[in-house]
Amino acid sequence: MSWLAHPLAVRLRNLGRIAGVNRWLAGLLAGPGYEASFERAVLASVQRGDRVWDVGANVGLYTLKLLEATGAEGRVYAFEPSPVNRARLATAVGERANAVVVPLALGDRDDSMKFEQGRDELGATSRLLDASMDGIDVRVARGDSLVAAGEVAAPNVIKIDVEGFELDVLRGLGGVLRSPSLRAIGIEVHFGILHERGIADAPRQLERLLGEAGYRCAWTDPSHVIASRAAP
Q1: What pTM value is reported for the model?
Q2: What averages of pLDDT result for each successive group of 10 residues across the chain (232 residues)?
């Protein structure tokens, strides 16, 4: 287990959030523009011709870069449940034959869930909601179910940014995670939302799940982890 996922570190992080110092500490530990390290690591894991899943594609900022990395012979599946974000995503990818916009959220079950549109300019804080909350209905599916049904192709690389539902996504990928064709998974871990959902130990669960599937986890900064398949 990495120190960032240790229960004591998570508790200290929650206290830092209450005190309002986490953003300052993140900049101190990882430097300005810290997410750039995560972006470079994700893109470096992509090869020409790859099938890539962009889970929580939002308006396509990562999708477009992943399309460049895979080339015309590859394919990027951009998962986005928000109708508002998805309209902008579809405009961004245009008529690219190697882009597939998938109008749903990945999760740990095949169902529908409530969803809230983010109020920020890009809708980046849009998120699924727990059952007791109000929102619009969106389709949720396990990644394994979609692959088995032929709705999407199994991935070589996955990028996940789903506002506190990252563990749910991984739990729906049991078979996908164990596929030898999947080399790397990049995840933004939303500690604050996970704490609000009552699963503050999710980072530890996430690392354990990935480790059991044969991956090694490396944190590029305090909020982003890259899981790479360990050499046999």
Answers
A1: 0.89
A2: 60 51 49 78 97 97 97 97 96 95 97 92 88 89 98 98 96 96 96 90 94 95 91 64
pLDDT digits (tens, 9 = 90+) for 44-85: 999 999 999 999 999 999 999 999 999 999 999 999 999 999
Q: Which residues of 121-144 are buried (b: 16+ CB within 10 A; e: fewer)?
A: eebeebbbbeeeeeeeebebbbbb
Q: Note the pLDDT tens digit of each residue in 22-35.
A: 454 455 555 556 68
CB atoms within 10 A of CB 208: 14
What angle, rounded to 10 degrees, do the helices at 61-70 and 83-93 form? 40
Pairing of strands 184-188, 224-229: antiparallel
